[in-house]
Specification:
Elements lengths: L2 H9 L10 H24 L5 H4 L3 H24 L10 H20 L5 H6 L6 H20 L7 H20 L8 H26 L3
Helix pairs in contact: 2-7, 2-8, 4-5, 4-8, 5-9, 7-8, 7-9, 8-9
Length: 212
C-alpha cells in the first residue's frame, strides 16, 4: 500500500473532537478532590466557631482575596501547559497576589509596635498551618492529575509544579474556613509556605503521574 493511501485510510473516518468534552472530566476530577479536602476540614478541624462574625471582617476575606486569584492564575497556566502549542502565559500573574498581600502585611507591620511583630508572624498555629494546607492539597492535586491525563502536557515537571500550586491555593481557600488567624503577615508566610510545599510535591511527582 502506498503511503498516501495508508494515511487516507487511517484518517478518513476521523471527526473533530470538541475541547469542551474535557470540561466535565476536569470538573468531576477536581471537584472530587475538593470534596475530599472539605470533608477532612469539617471532620478534623471544623468550621471556625465565630464564622458568622468572621465573614463580616476584612481578615477573613483577605485570605480568599489572596488564595482565589492565585489559584485561578495557576489553574489557567496549568490548563495552557497541558495543551501543546498553546503559550503558557507570563508567570507574573501568579506573583501579583503574593505581591499585593506583601504590601498589606507590610502596612500592618508598620502600624504595629515592634513587640507585636512575632505574634503577627507566628499567630497561634504556625506549627501546623503550612502542613495542613499541603496535606489538604493532595486530593485536589490527584484530581488535577487525573484530569491532565486526558490532555497532553509535554513539560511534565513544570506542569506538575503549577498544578500543585493551584491545588495548594485551592486547599488554602478551604482551610481558611477553619483558620482563625487574622494577620496578613501570618497568611503571607504560612499559607504561602504550604502552597509552595504543594508546588514542590507537584514538581517532584509530576513527571511520573503525568507521563502519557
Amino acid at each position: 500500500m502506498q503511503t498516501d493511501r495508508l494515511i487516507y485510510t487511517l484518517t478518513e473516518n476521523l471527526r473533530p473532537v470538541s475541547s469542551r468534552g474535557l470540561n466535565p472530566r476536569v470538573a468531576v476530577a477536581v471537584g472530587s478532590g475538593a470534596i475530599v479536602a472539605m470533608v477532612v476540614v469539617l471532620a478534623a478541624f471544623g468550621i471556625r466557631r465565630d464564622f458568622g462574625q468572621a465573614i463580616l471582617t476584612f481578615p477573613f476575606w483577605m485570605k480568599w482575596m489572596y488564595c482565589i486569584p492565585l489559584c485561578a492564575a495557576a489553574a489557567l497556566r496549568t490548563w495552557r501547559l497541558a495543551r501543546p502549542g498553546v503559550p503558557s502565559g507570563p508567570v507574573t500573574w501568579m506573583l501579583l497576589p503574593f505581591a499585593l498581600l506583601a504590601v498589606v502585611a507590610g502596612i500592618d507591620l508598620a502600624r504595629a509596635p515592634l513587640i507585636a511583630w512575632p505574634a503577627m508572624w507566628l499567630g497561634q498555629s504556625w506549627q501546623y498551618c503550612a502542613l495542613r494546607v499541603t496535606l489538604l492539597s493532595l486530593p485536589i492535586f490527584v484530581g488535577l492529575c487525573v484530569a491532565l491525563k486526558h490532555m497532553a502536557p509535554t513539560r511534565l515537571r513544570m506542569t506538575g509544579a503549577i498544578a500543585g500550586l493551584a491545588a495548594g491555593a485551592f486547599a488554602a481557600v478551604i482551610y481558611a474556613l477553619a483558620c482563625d488567624e487574622v494577620s496578613a503577615a501570618f497568611v503571607l508566610v504560612w499559607y504561602s509556605l504550604g502552597i509552595a510545599f504543594a508546588a514542590g510535591i507537584g514538581a517532584l511527582v509530576g513527571p511520573m503521574l503525568l507521563r502519557w
